[in-house]
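User: Watch each token:
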Amino acid sequence: MTQNNSPKTDISHIRREIDRVDEALLSLVAERLELARAVREAKSGSRVWRPSREDSLIRHLSDISGDTSAHLVSRIWAELMSASLALQGPIRLHIALEGDAVDVWSLVRDRFGAAIPMSSYPTASSALAAAYSDPEGVAILPSPIGMNTWWTALSADGAMPDMRILAGLPRVSNEEWPRAVAVSTVDMIASSNDRLLLTLDRPEVLHDLSITGVLKAESGQKHLIWLDAGQDVERIQDVKAQDPSAKIIGYLSPPLSEN
């Protein structure tokens, strides 16, 4: 019989090391939350939710995480940032439970964690209206595609032209187009890698100006175009010159890959 001469792994030592790491993690979490309280005092009335900073942070952390999956990084920091946002101000999520409610709640928890106060509504229009009347409100709405027409309220002549699409759900996906979006009056700060969302009445203007995009939805004469990444935002002024209804109503950051 062949004997295995390799030393046995000391499982008790490994468990003690896990306990040590857990305690260190908890100490760092407490430190992070204390910093969040300091941010609340320093902001002095500034908006609480910063989607562009949030996405940039998660993307950076995922890039340096080695073998740790992007989904795990996103979930952990969703909870951390959720707790931080809840400390910093009166932010509330207004969630449209159209379609599969369980799937919607799962998307919300994956992106925003569990600490932020939430209210639910039977339709996208009621959730959007509630968020619009809430200074720190964020509406979670079904993806603007197909028969979903709530996005027309964000157009130049819509009822809520200062609302913007600022994030896609889920954050981690191999599909470019999201299943739901977050909408708010928070300032829109897009990067060169983000894809812009444009509404206009005359989509043929884009062809005339050699601007490429994908038609995602239409309602009456309104068209929602997903502009390719890297498009020169300055050229939108050329579009507006030919179609005054043209308006950027938001952007979507590329999702993190599941692989």
